[in-house]
Amino acid sequence: VPTIPVPIRATRDASYDVHVGRGALAGLPAILRSACPANRYAVIADHHVAELHGERLMGLLSDAGLPAHLVTFPAGEWNKSREQWATLTDELLRARLGRDGAVIAFGGGVAGDLAGFVAATYLRGIPYVQVPTSLLAMIDSSVGGKTGVDVPAGKNLVGAFHQPCAVVADVDLLATLARVHVAAGLAEAVKHGVIRDAAYLTILEEPRPLLAKDLDRLEAVVARSVAIKAEIVAADEREAGVRAILNFGHTVAHAIEARSGYALLHGEAVAIGMAVESALAESAGIAAAGTHARIVTALERCALPVRVPEDLATDALLDAMQTDKKTRQEVVRMALPACCGTMARDAAGAWTHAADGALLREALDSNRG
Ligand SMILES: NC(=O)c1ccc[n+]([C@@H]2O[C@H](COP(=O)([O-])OP(=O)(O)OC[C@H]3O[C@@H](n4cnc5c(N)ncnc54)[C@H](O)[C@@H]3O)[C@@H](O)[C@H]2O)c1
Ligand SMILES: [Zn+2]
Question: Which end of the chain is more exposed for a tag (fewer CB within 10 A), N or C?
Fold first, then answer.
């Protein structure tokens, strides 16, 4: 048969800036003009964030002469769904947003992932800007270009890589964030400390000012976490290798979230996941003794749960892990630490490890309560 090559060599430069700081929102119109010029902007936010901060954002845009309209959806992880993706997409079509339009994702990680996925797919993809408003979104989810929705089979199983044109993280917006969501955000910060920076972890081991929402200190934490995430994502945009370390704690977390019907916050599930996965890493001889204890202590100080809820059976969690995106030939794979600050490679040099079935079961059985 004749063979016709299609020589596509991607040359796209998907670089962008993350603007972190108190009051950063005031700079959004200028950032939009330079990094994401558009004829019209669709601001996608959950009801709760829209009620708290929507007027301010829409006022900023209209004062700057930037045409925009607000589209909202109900808050909560269970709305990061195909159904909401469809509803939002239809609303943009009804509003006749064209290819010269752009999306502004305004809210926590749910709004960011959902609006990002709308932008990734709308008219085969239009540009978007992330304006994170939760600590978790500022620290983690707004950077890196992973977008998508949860489906009945599991978390984040349908989605796309779509990098934003810019990220604007105004730490002052955290003034209205509930304490449980501050704690949930700190779980991802602890993850960044464990995977890359033991000195950063030391700061998170004294989290009282952070939980009390000392905004200057939170700003420093957001900046440090974004720097760590940016460095890893820049090295491996599509998770062919090192980016997998950002999934520390997440194999177990995603199973817990899915099997609990999203009764736990993502950050809470990640905290439990890091406790379980670090226990496994130690029992498998991958992590140095004391790694699990240090991680658990840090998480507990951040007011986070570290034990698997009693009503989630180990078998159900093991079953849910089979749909994890890192699972290969039914073997669950995990990113595991060598010690606090450094992740371990497996014997073949990969950044994920085949989890020993018996040790994983043991880690899930013993970290309960
Ligand atoms: N794409 C990624 O790389 C990535 C990384 C980490 C997490 N995530 C995803 O992020 C999601 C979790 O994000 P989340 O914890 O931000 O959840 P969320 O978006 O549901 O926000 C949490 C709650 O805080 C409220 N809120 C947000 N900002 C507020 C503010 N300034 N003041 C008052 N209330 C505010 C929201 O209305 C919501 O009720 C999960 O779906 C997770 O999978 C994605
Ligand atoms: Zn996460």
Answer: N
Residues 172, 22 contacting (CB under 8 angstroms): yes
Contact 131, 19 (CB under 8 A): no
Q: Whole-prediction pTM value?
A: 0.97
Rounded average pLDDT per 10-residue block, the chain, 369 residues:
88 92 98 98 98 98 98 97 98 98 98 98 98 98 98 94 98 98 98 98 98 98 98 94 97 96 96 98 98 98 98 96 87 96 97 96 95
Q: Whose CA is nearest to atom 19 of ligand 1?
A: 108
Question: Kindly report the CA angle at 13 between 147 and 219, in degrees rounded to 5?
Answer: 60
169 C-alpha vs ligand 1 centroid, how far in Å? 13
- Ligand 1 centroid to Cα of residue 44, in Å, is 13
DSSP helix/strand/coil, 248: coil
Contacts of 187 (CB under 8 A, 6+ apart): 136, 249, 267, 268, 270, 271, 274, 299, 302, 304
Amino acid symbol at 316: A
Ligand 1 site residues (CB inside 6 A) read 46, 48-49, 52, 75, 77, 80, 107-111, 113, 133-134, 136-137, 140-141, 144, 146, 156, 173-174, 176-177, 181, 184, 265-267
Cα separations (Å) of 5 from 2, 9, 11, 215, 350?
10, 12, 18, 55, 32
CB 35 within 8 A of CB 186: no
Instruction: Work out the widest C-alpha separation in the chain, in whole angstroms.
Output: 68
How confident is the model at residue 184, as a pLDDT? 98
